[in-house]
Amino acid sequence: MGRRRHGGPARQRSHLTARSSGRLRFAALAVLTLDGVLSAVIGAFFLPLYVGGVPLPVSGLISGLLNLALVWAALQWESSPRLAALPLWAWLITTLGLTLGGPGGDIVLSGSGVMQLAPVIFVVLGGGPPAYFLWRLTSRVPA
User: Fold this and answer.
1) Which segments cross the bilayer (predicted)?
2) pTM value surpassing 0.90
3) Cα separation, 129 vs 111, whole angstroms
């Protein structure tokens, strides 16, 4: 691998595949978990997006794809699926917090009509893809 000089021997780059230190891994997982919280907040605020007179919950799907990417990135830093699910858990806890009333009684994930289903739609679209990915990862039978 890696012939840079003409006629030189092929060499491997072990520094590119080696596991990093514990502090760096902890920092990366903390940043990915914070990104899960931000994904929930931004996705919930854009959930009541309307196209004409029809609500279009595209932010739930975007949040789900982002959460899938966050879980995949966490798996690059940590081999344990339980720890790699930290961004998803942070997203779920933040989403639960957004369904509760705030100091003025405002609830972010609520509405009338079809938007009463907004929390369910948001959880299914936002949490479904990374949960399915982790389920498929952990349900593999070792050969």
Assistant:
1) 26-50, 56-75, 82-102, 114-135
2) no
3) 25
